[in-house]
Every structure is written in C-alpha cells, then in structure tokens.
Amino acid sequence: MSKQFPLRYRQIHLDFHTGPDIPDVGADFDAREFALMMKKAHVNSVTVFAKCHHGHLYYNTKRPERHPGLRKGLDLLASQIDALHRQDIRAPIYISVQCDEYAANTYPQWVARKPDTSQVKWGNSVFTPGWQIMDMASPYQEFLAEQTREVLDRFRPVDGIFFDMCWDQPSTNAYFMDAMVKAGLNPESEQDRNRYARILALGYMKRFHAMVRASSPKATVFFNARPLFNLAEEIAFQEQVEIEALPTGGWGYMYFPKNVRFARTFDKPYLGMTARFHKSWADFGGLKPYAALEYETSQMMAHGARCSIGDQLHPRGVLDKAAYELIGKVYARVEQREPWLQGAVPLTQIGLFQVPTGVLSTTQTISGSDEGATRMLTQLKHQFDVVRPESDLDRYEVLVLPDVIRLDDATLRRLRSYIKGGGAVLATGTSGLSEDGRTLLLAELGIRPAGMSPFTATYIRFGKEISSDVPPSDHVMYERGVRVTPARGATSLARVVEPYFERAWNHFCSHRQTPGDRLSRWSAAVQNGRCGYIAFPIFSAFATHGNYPYRLLVRSLLERLLPEPLLRVDAPTSTEATVMRQGQRTIVHLLQYCPERRTEKLDIVEDIVPLFGVPLSLKVARKPRRVYLAPEGTDVPFEHLAGRVNLRVPEIRGHAMVVFE
C-alpha cells in the first residue's frame, strides 16, 4: 500500500464508449461543474477515459484515433483530470485493450479469428452491433503500446491505469499461429490455442504493468475481465483487485460475495464495482432503486471492499443530475461509515475450496458448486474465505471441499497434515475420491465408496443425531450421488432411500421422480472424527434446486465439526452477516435486503423491510468495554458468558454495524 496511492472508498467508473457517428462530443462539457457535481455526490475517485471500445481517444493528440466528433480544441481528459484534482478527487485513466473498433476497421488483419476464419466479435453475425476483438499477437499490441506511452507521457504522473477487456483470447490469425509455432505449440489443437492465449495475456500484462510503474511508480494498475480464479498467477501484475459485478447486468447477487472472499486473501486492496443502471452498462435513462444501490455498497463495506459505482457520461459531456443525486445519497452513507472501514480485515473460520471453471472463463462465471456453497454458508451465517490448495490452510478451523474438487498428491499431503494438526474437513460428492466415485483418495473421510449411484434421484433420511428441526420425511435428492458405506470407526448420520427403479420413457411412475422404495445400506452423510462427508454434490444441487433440507444437512455436519462458530444470528436466511476486525474493535455487519425476481432475468431490490430485536452471539474471549451501533453511537446492552457476547440488535434497517470495543 505504501508504494502507491491508497484506493479510496467512493469511486465512479465513468464509461465513455462513444461511437464515431456522434457529432458533438464534449459540446456542453464544463470542467468546474463536472468536478463539483462529483464532489457534491461524495465521490473521491473517478476513472476517466483516454480510449474507449470504439478505439477513439479523448485528449489532445496528433494520432488519427482522436474522436472525430470531439469539440475542436477540447482536451477532455486533461480538463477532467485537472478539475477533479482541484477537488482532491483521484482520476485513474481508462484504456480499452482488446476492443478497438477503429483499429479493427483500419487494420482488419489484426482482428482475432475463429477456426472457421470468421472474426471474433460480440454478437452473432457481422450485422449485429458489437465489438470486434483484436489479436494481441498481431502488431496491434505495439499500436496499443504507443497509445499507452503517449497517455503516460502526457499525464505523468498518472494516478492509475485501468486496462479493460483483457481476457485470454485464442485466435487463428496468422500472427497468433506463427507465434504458437515459435513457442512449440500446435495451432490445430484447441487446447494449445487456449494455452497460448494465456501465455500471451500474461506476457502483455507484465509488459504494460512495467510500462505504467516505470512512468508513474505510485500508480495503481489493473487489468479487467480476467478470470479471478487465476489471481494467484496474475497478482504480480495487479496493484489492486476490482470485482466488476453488476447484479442486474448478468453477474447476479452471488458473484461479488463469492469472489470477494477469494480476492481479499491476496493482501492487495480490493473493491466491488456495481453501477447506477437499471440493467447493465450504457443503460442510458436507467436508474436502479435507491435500496438496490444501498444494498450493493453495503455488501462491499461488509466485506472490507472499497466501493465503485459505474456510470456512462453523455456524449456532450454532461453528468445525469438524477444519477448523482442517487449516488450522493448512497456515498454519504459510505463516508459516514469509513471510520469503521479503514484497515478492517475479515475474521473467518472456514476455508472454501473453489471449483476452477476453465482457462477461458470470463470474470462473470462461477460454478454451481461455488454459488451453492456461497449461498448456503451465507444463509448459515458462517464466516469463510474462498481458498486454493496453496493458501495458508492452517488459518481455518474447517475446510470445505465442494462436490468436485480434484486432489493431486501435493494437495492430499497438505490436507492430511492439516487434519493431523487438528483441522476439520467437510467433503461432498466426488471431492476426495476419483471422478468415477470408486476410489477413495483421502482416507481420513472414513468411507468405502462403490461408484456412482445408478439412480438419478434418491432420498435422504436424516439420522436421529442430526434430525433437529428437520421434517420427519425422506427428502428428495435431485442429483446423482456416490454409493458409500462408513469405514470402521466412522458414523453414518443419514441414509439413502432408493427408488423402485430408474425412470425411463418406457418405465416410469407418475409425473416426476420414482417414489422411494426401501432404506438402502448406503450412507448419505458420514462423520469420521474431524472429517465429514456428504455423498451428493449438495452445493450445486442447492444452487440448482434450492431445496432447504440440503442446507439443514450441511448445517448439521458443520455443527459437529465446528461446535463454536464465530457468530450466531437468529435472523431470516436472507440476512447476511460478516465479522471484521479493526485494531481492538470487532465489527459485525448485518444486511437485510431481499432481491426479488421481478422479471424473467432481473433480481430487483426496491424496498427495505426492517428487522427488530435480533438475537446475536459473538465468540469473544474477553468482555468488551462497550458495544454500540455505528455510525449512530447508540449503546447496546449485552452479557458476556462462556466466551461469548450475547445481545439483541435493536433494529436492522437494511444495514446495521454492531461494534465491539
């Protein structure tokens, strides 16, 4: 952090993708009015545009890419930066990387190509509006480097550079294939093309990161649209981690909370990025409800992230007044809470392994197992990080291996050492087994596997040890599981009821799955000392089907593996809870917002419904001097018994912060 400008908590990402047919770019721009509106909206950092997806530049330059409609004599970028700096507002600079319509139209030989030789572009045909995608193995990379050098020289020292559209892009362009051959790879192999796309991306990230830091040693640098699960390899080229996650723009409301739990483990500053739009980027005239923007920024604060709200500047250069009234209301809340945010770090007990989703995955992709596990652990109010096998596993009291985690020899050795040292493990599905479910790799799970069940759907019968609050029924499991029995010394906590037969076109009963026939000898859940195992891909099943007994089963296993959770909150499953540590303070964030599916594809938050008198219990060794609500300062009565602080939160109106001094 000391080597760069500190990231601020109230940022705007100000898109300005402006097509060449717009004739009056910047015609109404007033630098002072622009900066004062940002200041009035409590904004303290704005990402402004040097180059957009159309490939046009917005500063004074002799390069032909300067936007043809930009007002004569107007150095828009310089005016924005100067005006923002006068108001003590940071102004990192945006540069589009693989989207460049100007370069694609001027140098079509630089465009990335598919195996059928058609161009790579957004949209289904050449007649669909959408960006053409550039091949970074072509001379386009040097073209981009020349633009970047000019920006760095013109605006030195820059506050930061935000490089966008930087995913791994395979190509069959001659430049790409020639480079592959020189690297000893086979252009006919899709796997090799994907591998070289990754090599190429890492190479240009390293190059451009070095360019920026050599020019402006304190500048922040970020490459957007990277698959976040590759952060371990790429963090050397990222000065911060920005999690682009517009909930109504295709990301949904689980994308940010899953990925922030991974991003925050790399000891770099991190932020969440949403937007003011009703839908997604460039939704001109679209304003989301205040409650939604309050929720999204509160979620960022609750996870220790800085906040970024996306907007798009009108081509004439005038900010939308209503948008900044909305943003100002939200950012006034953030500013009030900053004294309890600065330097706060998460407290966690559980490490959740994530499922890699492939080298070419965009940042919008998470697996069903990841989403289901994030939803379930959040609903259970557990405190967890998302980890990788190389993480410091000893930081966690329990590790969760969801559904399909493949374990190599090195990871198996680490897990065995972790368990031997007193750690607990919960594995599900084929995690800890071979892919076919026949071979046990992690013997500590205490099971005897016999391969995958022949039945698509079976039923779970909870044992008496874990039947608390569970309806006394055989609960359907909609996904195929593994047939297992407990090994010697292990305990079966739930059993599998199998159906009469597997449903088929010529052999079925009633509308859906075949009803249960008999209690089988197979276990649905097993505990072996500090290890628990569930024989189904229960997290992806929860993401797909939302069947609440799945959560009850995971809850029961975790209660046995983690009898003293850091936090207990007697609140609806929709209530989110995180625990942060700030020096001698412990801060519990409680969020109660309920996204509703109000269209076929959009989850909307419009109303804030308060909760009152919510019981809360926090594991704290020493009695705190004071407990109060922030930022109000209202004291909360409490008792300290057996290493826990017990109290009732008087009200949660969207977002409450309970501070233990």
Descriptive report:
The chain is an alpha/beta fold and 661 residues long. The chain contains 14 helices and 31 strands. The strands form 6 sheets. The chain has a 9-stranded mixed beta sheet with strand order 11-10-12-13-20-19-18-15-16, sandwiched between helices. Strands 5-4-3-2-1-8-7-6 form an 8-stranded parallel beta sheet. The protein has a 6-stranded antiparallel beta sheet with strand order 9-22-23-31-27-28, with helices on one face. A hairpin with a 2-residue loop joins strand 19 (516-528) and strand 20 (531-534). It is globular, with a radius of gyration of 27 Å. The two termini are 26 Å apart. The relative contact order is 0.09.
What count of helical segments does DSSP give? 14
Class by SSE composition: alpha/beta
* Proportion in β-strands: 15-25%
General form: globular
Largest sheet: 9 strands, mixed
Uncertain runs are: none
Distance between the termini: 26 Å
Helix content: 25-40%
| Average pLDDT metric | 96
Number of strands: 31
Strand order, sheet with most strands:
11-10-12-13-20-19-18-15-16
SSE layout and pairing:
Blueprint: E1 10-15, H1 31-40, E2 45-51, H2 76-86, E3 93-96, H3 101-106, H4 140-154, E4 160-164, H5 174-182, H6 190-215, E5 220-223, H7 231-234, E6 241-244, H8 255-263, E7 270-275, H9 290-302, E8 306-312, H10 321-337, E9 345-346, E10 350-353, H11 368-379, E11 384-387, E12 398-401, H12 409-420, E13 424-428, E14 447-452, E15 458-462, E16 475-477, E17 482-486, E18 491-499, E19 516-528, E20 531-534, H13 538-545, H14 548-561, E21 567-569, E22 576-582, E23 585-591, E24 596-597, E25 603-604, E26 611-619, E27 627-630, E28 634-635, E29 638-641, E30 644-652, E31 655-660
Parallel strand pairs: 1-2, 1-8, 2-3, 3-4, 4-5, 6-7, 7-8, 10-11, 10-12, 12-13, 13-20
Antiparallel strand pairs: 9-22, 14-17, 15-16, 15-18, 18-19, 19-20, 21-26, 22-23, 23-31, 24-25, 26-30, 27-28, 27-31, 29-30
